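Our preliminary data section would be incomplete without showing what the modeling component actually yields. Below, a chain of 63 amino acids is followed by its predicted structure, encoded as tokens that our downstream tools consume directly.
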Amino acid sequence: MGRVKVKLDKELYQKIEKVAETAGYSSPQEFIIHILEKEINHFEGADSEEEIKKRLKGLGYIS
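Predicted structure:
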């Protein structure tokens, strides 16, 4: 599997570093991957774009 770089504000990354360390993750990257995988699981099984939008609304990501 290849890698993709994502740019984050330095302030946000510093917060991620603190949380990851406190929570016992081996790195900020491990924490970020865990959080993203957890959030993506909310949308697995969605059959359409409309279903994804409905789930996003339910989670409070969009209005």
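The radius of gyration is 15 Å. Residues 10-59 form one domain. Preliminary results of this kind motivate Aim 1 of the renewal.
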